[in-house]
Amino acid sequence: MPSLSTTRPQRPGPPSVPRRSWRWGLLAALLLGLVAGSTYYVRHRVQVNRYARRTWATLTRGGLTGRERTPLLAGYSVHGIDVSAYQGRIDWPEVARNRVRFAFIKASEGATLRDARFARNWREARAAGVLCGAYHYFQPNRDGRVQANLFARTVPLAPGDLPPVLDVEAANFHDVAVLRREVARWLRLIEAHYGVRPILYSNHSFYQRHLAGHFDRYPLWLAHYEVARPTMPANKWIIWQHSDEAYVPGIRGVVDFNVFQGNFEDLQALRIPAPTPPASSGRR
Fold first, then answer.
1. Per-residue model confidence as pLDDT tens digits over 98-124
2. What parts of the sequence cross the membrane (predicted)?
3. Annotated catalytic, 169?
4. CATH assignment of 64-268, among 3.30.413.10, 3.40.190.10, 3.20.20.80, 3.40.50.10470
């Protein structure tokens, strides 16, 4: 009699996965990354291009020497810079020899911060014959009066200096009405303290969104990059910051580059005036 087989029938295993499936997954991931990268670039192309150019310049030049030069913007006769401790030690006589006629120097920020290089920059820039002004970086979550007091204690503006500047561009606020109220308070207090109307600085998009129409009595210093000219009408601004990646001999690294709308005599007319002597009573 034939013996019974003890071999169990084999169960079918899971279906085999095609070898090409992982390639489709990789392709999908690459396409998703491309879409995400393209979307980011479209939204932030100005910043991406700026950082790419800066990195390329640093790599190809083997390190910055402080002698690099960005051509002056055509069509304007009065050029200037604005600086802070970020620029490090500045050779101000060399800066002045390269047609930099004015400089705004960071003095303070928020309620407590004083720029570490303000005193040195202020002293050496003026000694080099550069027309100087000072600016305060406004923090919207701090009281405007406290910030004005810090600036006034830090900056010894005198007749012949350019007006004080309030830099308003920090977006970390929740109520635009509160922002405008505190900005107005700073401007009002500083105008009373120095006897001259301050200049308001902001970038184009921030100004249009939050400040336009509320501070028209103050001269506007406008930051607007990657454009042939500001889209805002020329009668709305007096200074245009056209680049934040310029090179000026005397500064090792990049610096903000500005032009003044007018000639040098017009710029001088903005300076803090000398006090008017008291009128004679005519008595002897």
1. 999 999 999 999 999 999 999 999 999
2. 22-42
3. yes
4. 3.20.20.80
Neighbours of 219 (CB within 10 A): 17
> Which residue pairs, CB below 8 angstroms and at least 24 apart, start in 68-75?
68/247, 68/249, 69/98, 69/247, 69/248, 69/249, 70/243, 70/246, 70/247, 70/248, 70/257, 72/99, 73/242, 73/257, 73/259
Looking at 94, 169, 191, 245, which residue is catalytic? 169
82 to each of 16, 105, 130, 257, how far by Cα in Å? 67, 6, 12, 7
- Concerning whether 143 is annotated as a catalytic residue, the answer is no
- Cα gap 45→47, rounded to integer Å: 6
> Are 214 and 233 in contact, with CB atoms under 8 Å apart?
no
Average pLDDT, the chain: 88
Output the CA angle 74-257-180, nearest 5 degrees.
120
Domain ranges in the chain are 64-268
User: How many residues does the structure list for the chain?
Assistant: 284
